[in-house]
Predict the 3D structure of the following.
Amino acid sequence: MAAGVRLRAVPGAARPRLPAQLLPCRVGRDGPAPVAAFLRTQPGPGGELWASFRGRRMGGRELPLPHGYRGVLLREGDAPPGDDKDPQERWVTVTGTFDVITDWEADVIPSPAGGLALALQWGPLAHAIHAPVPETDSSEEAEP
């Protein structure tokens, strides 16, 4: 059986908006980092972004999350005091939010019809597919 994940809400805690970057490489770091000091972006003529990371040129595109969606940054931690600890449960706290992801590719601009851009279209599509279908009068059925 899969372990449960419980979200700890910290009353009154500020949840800053954070920049989310999807890099075309692996970075051996897990946690906050001074990204702005190392990833300096330059706007291109068509609204794209250009940057250099570890000496490699990258093209980027900012992709907003679909309407009604919000990204969250979670940090795993210990259970709150006084909670009966279930060894299978994991506790997470929201430490930040984002509503735009910058998608990066090496040497080129990411395609607007592939990768992350295509994945972000799935949420509204899934909502439409699973929405209730209104009932119709049987005498109004469409003819083949």
About this structure: The first strand starts at residue 5 and ends at 8. The helical segments are 35-38, 115-120, 122-130.
